[in-house]
């Protein structure tokens, strides 16, 4: 069996799982490298907070690394950043190579898997996208599609329900970082949960 190629040639994307303040060291964000590489002395920026800083060191399981690659769960010490400046759901990226940006409105394909009623424009559920949990408004139902062929079956739907596949325009209620699925797949997929149950993705 061949080992899948890790997307280390892409620009860095590292969603934060948590941020710690460690005595004698400072602020240490932790998370998994999804694409690209993370190295000491690299300049990183965090989206959507807009903070830019330098990486002092990178560690995995208490061992210092010269380079972290996709799949590595790491902690990295950053300069002059407070634990109040960044948080879970922020995405670290290379400040000099296609830095991550906050998402405004975006279009996404959703499949309604388990929902008790009809969904109309204005519905505002919480999206789980990488480590972020942000309420997003279904601003407009753009089209309904055949799940098997992806052909448009209704170009102006007013409602969608269980079993439907649709293109919707989503607007985050708070600053959020997500990416186009074709460019950064781990940051381009999401799930919506209803009462602790997976609902759509």
From TrEMBL:
<keyword id="KW-0963">Cytoplasm</keyword>
<keyword id="KW-0251">Elongation factor</keyword>
<dbReference type="Pfam" id="PF03144">
    <property type="entry name" value="GTP_EFTU_D2"/>
</dbReference>
<dbReference type="InterPro" id="IPR009001">
    <property type="entry name" value="Transl_elong_EF1A/Init_IF2_C"/>
</dbReference>
<feature type="domain" description="GTP-eEF1A C-terminal">
    <location>
        <begin position="106"/>
        <end position="194"/>
    </location>
</feature>
<dbReference type="InterPro" id="IPR004161">
    <property type="entry name" value="EFTu-like_2"/>
</dbReference>
<dbReference type="GO" id="GO:0003746">
    <property type="term" value="F:translation elongation factor activity"/>
</dbReference>
<dbReference type="Pfam" id="PF22594">
    <property type="entry name" value="GTP-eEF1A_C"/>
</dbReference>
<keyword id="KW-0342">GTP-binding</keyword>
<keyword id="KW-0648">Protein biosynthesis</keyword>
<comment type="similarity">
    <text>Belongs to the TRAFAC class translation factor GTPase superfamily. Classic translation factor GTPase family. EF-Tu/EF-1A subfamily.</text>
</comment>
<dbReference type="InterPro" id="IPR054696">
    <property type="entry name" value="GTP-eEF1A_C"/>
</dbReference>
<dbReference type="InterPro" id="IPR009000">
    <property type="entry name" value="Transl_B-barrel_sf"/>
</dbReference>
<dbReference type="GO" id="GO:0005737">
    <property type="term" value="C:cytoplasm"/>
</dbReference>
<keyword id="KW-0547">Nucleotide-binding</keyword>
<protein>
    <submittedName>
        <fullName>Translation elongation factor 1-alpha</fullName>
    </submittedName>
</protein>
<feature type="domain" description="Translation elongation factor EFTu-like">
    <location>
        <begin position="26"/>
        <end position="91"/>
    </location>
</feature>
<dbReference type="GO" id="GO:0005525">
    <property type="term" value="F:GTP binding"/>
</dbReference>
């Amino acid at each position: 069996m061949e080992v899948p190629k890790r997307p280390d040639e892409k620009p860095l994307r590292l969603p934060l799982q948590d941020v710690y303040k460690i005595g004698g060291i400072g602020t240490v964000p932790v998370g998994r490298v999804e694409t690209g590489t993370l190295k000491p002395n690299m300049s990183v920026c965090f989206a959507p907070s807009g903070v830019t800083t330098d990486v002092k060191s990178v560690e995995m399981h208490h061992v210092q690394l010269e380079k972290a690659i996709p799949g590595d769960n790491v902690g990295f010490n950053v300069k002059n950043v407070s634990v109040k400046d960044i948080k879970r759901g922020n995405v670290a990226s290379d400040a000099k190579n296609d830095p991550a940006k906050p998402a405004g409105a975006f279009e996404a394909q959703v499949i309604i898997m388990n929902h008790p009623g009809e969904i109309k424009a204005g519905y505002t559920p919480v999206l789980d996208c990488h480590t972020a949990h942000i309420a997003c408004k279904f601003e407009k139902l753009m089209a309904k599609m055949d799940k098997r062929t992806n052909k448009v079956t209704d170009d102006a739907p007013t409602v969608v329900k269980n079993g439907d596949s649709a293109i919707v325009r989503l607007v985050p209620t708070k600053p959020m970082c997500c990416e186009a699925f074709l460019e950064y797949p781990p940051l381009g997929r999401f799930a919506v949960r209803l009462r602790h149950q997976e609902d759509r993705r």
